[in-house]
Every structure is written in C-alpha cells, then in structure tokens.
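To whoever picks this up:

The parser on our side crashed when reading a file containing two proteins. I've narrowed it down to the boundary between the first structure block and the second sequence. Both blocks are reproduced below exactly, byte for byte. First block:
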Amino acid sequence: METKSIMIVGVGGQGSLLASRLLGNVLLAQGYDVKVSEVHGMSQRGGSVVTYVKYGEKVYSPVIEKGEADAVISFELLEAARCLPYLKKGGKLITSTQQIDPMPVITGAAKYPGDLVEKLKAAGVETVAVDALSLAEQAGTAKASNVVLMGVLASRMDYPDELWQKALEQCVPPKFLDLNRKAFELGKNAQ
C-alpha cells in the first residue's frame, strides 16, 4: 500500500490534537504504520495549527510537503484556503464553514476574504464544506466541531464504525463521550 497523507489544520484551541489522535488510533487498528507530527503553530494564541498524519506499510517521516496531501481537514475556512497548495492533484478538502478572524482582520489591516467555499471549488478542488460549528452545538457544545469533521472524514473512509467508536472511547474523557459520539454521528450523516 502506498503511503497516504492527511493534514489537519485550524486555529489554536479547535482540537487538532484530539482529531489527529482519533484518526491515528483508527489507522493503527487497521494495521498501518502511522506517524503523527507534533502540533505546529501558535496553538495557545489562536494562531494557525497544522498536524500531519501519514500512514501506510512503512512510514519514515510524518512531514507532508506541498502537493503531497491526499486530504486536508480544516476546522476554519481561511486555513483551508491557506493549505490548498499541500493537496495533491485529485486530493480532497473537508472544511468547516466556520470563520475566525486572524489578527490582520481584527486590527483592520486586512479583510476576511468572501466566497471562500466557491473559490475553493472553482480552483478544481473536491471540496466538502460543512457547518461543523452548528452541528457541534446541536450535539451539545461548539467545542466538538473537530469530532464532527472526523465524522465527515469517517463517512469517506472505508474503515469499520467500531474502530472509530473505540478510538472515541480511548481518546475522549468518559464524561464527554456521549456528546462526542453524537457530534461524530452528525458529521458522518452530513452531506
């Protein structure tokens, strides 16, 4: 099996680490060699955060170069656009439609770009855009939008649901498990 690469991108505090742990657990349970990078970016300050997940028969490095990612999972729309160069031809983009103003927009030095979903699709990228924030709130908390997006990803990967459920049990504290299961299911059934 050739090595596959998935980038998980967002803004600090959106749950990139949990998402990469869930995905990593599922892939390990399928018998793949899995490498997950550290979270890169200013995760404590609302800055861009990128996590690389590579899996296959034998993986030597988690780093994903431009044009290598089979998929980009983005928790924020502008981050999706920023990471587009990393997608390989024919790669998939799964993104939340959530918009979080970066510092240049907050200070008035720039404007948040409009019509980003349309622009991403117009660039020829297979784009799945989901209102993950609303679905997470429907599940019980806005903080579960990361798990909603893992549900969207799971619906497009051919791995048994039991593996995802087991990963949730291993990665999510018991008191938040039911809420996260609901968020995951809402994501799986979106679009």
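<<boundary where parser fails>>
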Amino acid sequence: MSFRLWPRSLIGQLFVAVALMLFVAQAINFTLLARGQRQQVLAHGGGMAAGRIIDAIERDRRGDVLRGRDDEERPRRERVQKLVISDRPPPVLPGAKRMPELAAYVAGLLDEADLKAEAVDAWVLPQRPGVKRPDYPSRTVVVSAKVGERYFAVRSRIQAGGNRLQGFLIWQTLTLYLLLLVPIVLIGWRAARPLRELTRAARSNPALRDATPLAEEGPSDVRELIGAFNAYRARIATMLSDKDRMLGAVGHDLRTPLASLRVRVEQVDDDRLRDKMIASIEEMTAMLADILALARSGAGTEIQERIDAAGLARELAADYGEQGKDAGLAEIADAAVMARPMLLRRALRNLVDNALAYGVRARLSIAVVDGMARIIVSDDGPGLTDEQIRTLVEPFARGEQSRNRATGGAGLGLSIARDIAEGEGGTLTLANRDGGGLDAVIALPVV
C-alpha cells in the first residue's frame, strides 16, 4: 500500500513546504548553537583547568607548593580536592567518564603557553546522590597533565548538558510556526477559496446557462483571473443563446416547406413513387429532429431533479413491451440520481433503439459501483471493434454503413446520449461483453 505524503491542495503544499523549511532551518540552528555551547563549555571548564595547571607548574618550579606558601591558608580537604601533584598518574574514580574533547582543548592551551605536556586526560565525575543545583547545573571534571616527570591534576566545573538549549529551541520553533504558518494558512485559504469556486464553475456545463458572475475575491491575481473567467463565460452564454435562436429559426424554416411538400406529395397518383417520396420526407424530418436534438442536448429550461433509476428502467421496459419490442429487465439495483428526466429518458431510448436495431433484444440493468449508478443497456448483437467504440459516439458515425435509416439511422443516437450523460455530470461508455454482445453504460453520481 502506497501513501501519498505530498498534499495536492495549495494550502497543504504551502503548509508542508514552510513547515519543512522551518524544521531544516531550526535543525541547522540547533547544530550551530549546540556546537557553540560545546565550545563555550570547553572554553570555560578547560580554560579554568589549564589556568590552574599552569599556575601549579609555575609554583612547583618556584617551590611554593612544597613550602605550602599559598595552600596552607586553605583547609587540607579543599587543597586535596582542587590540586594534586604527584609522580604517578592520578587514579580514576569509579563511574567517571573520559572527555577526550576537553583533554584535547586543555592540551592546546598548554601548548600555546609553551608547556609541552606529554599526556593530558580528562574525566567527568558522577553526580553525588542528593546533590542538585537546578538553577546552575554543572558537573565536576578532573583534568590531568604530565609535564616533565610530574603529573598535575586539577578539578574544574563545566555546564551539564544542553537541556536549557533544547527547551529554548523548542519554544522558539513553536513560536516561529505560529508566527509564520498561521498567516500563510490564512493567506492560502484566502486565495484557495475563490479558486475552488472558480474550478466548480469551470467544470459546470456551459449549456446550462448558469452564467451568474462569480464574486471577485482573493489576491489581485486571483481577482483578475475570476474577472476574465466571468467575461469568458458571458461570451459563451451569448454564443449559445445565438445558436439556439438560429437553430429554432432553421427548424421552423425547414419544417414548414417539408410539411408543405408532404401535402403535395399526397396528390401523386403513382402509389409506388408517392410512398418513396413520403419515406424520403419522413427521413429528412427525422434527421432534422435528431440534428436539432444533438445541438440542444445541453440546453432547455428543464431543471435537474431526483430520479429513481430503477423506476425509470421499469417504465422504459414496459413502454417497449407495449410496442411489441423485446426490451426487458435484468438485475436492477435501487439507486437515485440527479438528472433532467426528459433528457435522461431520451438518452436511454436512443441506447435501447440501437440495441434493438443491431441485436435481437435489449436488456436494462442497474448496478451501483464506487458511488456511481451504472444504467446498462445490453444487446446480443455482434459487438464492436475497438476502433468502432472510439468513433461511434461522434456525430453521424454509424455501425451499419448503409444510408438506410431503417437499418442504421443518421448516426446521431449515441452522440445525443453521450452529450446528455455528460451534461448531467456523468459518462457514456461502450464495452463488448464476454460471451458476445455490447454494453452501453450511462454512469451518474448516486444521490
């Protein structure tokens, strides 16, 4: 199973990108501060230890330590704890941990003071039980250096760990996230909300004449985009209205002379010639109706409503049964869709007519898959090739190549059904069925 980690929305991408960059920046900041704190700890504790060793070496060379001129004023316990001069390496106390970085730092300081130390070592002593200094956390270290034939061991103190630094960086990171991410999310939401409305409007069917201008909100770039879209959609609505007026005029102007021609043809005495002429006129009238239906498939004043798909399928099967045509029902699942009833019924009638024309019978079935109601019209015909499946939904494409309307029609039935399905927010697909036959499927969202 794969997980999509990178968000697709504008706000999500801005949020994740800024959060990651802040995290990387804080990680670099933490590394630099931790290194600086480490150097400060070494400089403080190592500097004190190196200074005491240098002072002890100078006094040892002058003989002051042997005479005890300075240390006699201090208690013996303190004198033993802070400075030990011996001919042997100092013992390592149980639980002590070596600090090679501190030893190297002290060795460097001694080298800068022209004191050649043969061996420098450092240990941090374990904390004594019950001793806590929360205000000034520190640890005791022992630094030993062999200069000449003698070992000089001193005690010093270093800061204990970076808990304070970690706490400071955590609060700093949270503050930065609040100061940066909250405004970025608000700005992204302000830009994304009108973009979502714009996307919804762009996906709607322009033939529905829903040309209500969108509110121009958001940043200036987004407002200009919405303004351009409103103007563009208004131009489309104007063009569609002009097209509808033109088609209405064409339909009226053509139907009138066809009706007049039909009346005159009735006066022809030759029955055979009269029947052929009447058939040609009826074919022209039916083709004209199909062309106008295709051009107006997304238009009209009919509004969408909730339709019981199962009930619609039963009504269609009953209508065809009354006409003596074999259009029955298969498996019917209960499903409701949002569509315009007359247009959806016309699309299904076109599919059933095709099934009856190219096969012996038609079967209606309904299935619900992934939130989509699949209204399936199946036939028992020879099926289609892949090329025919790709082309038959185009206007005037026919599976039967003759121009006889009784066998093939004008080639507009599938085009009309496709445009109606897409106008209702669905799809039309054709697929060969295992065992022979073709399935024409109109898929619409379930409500």
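After patching the parser it read the second block fine. The domain at 305-445 is CATH 3.30.565.10 (Heat Shock Protein 90). The longest strand covers residues 138-147.
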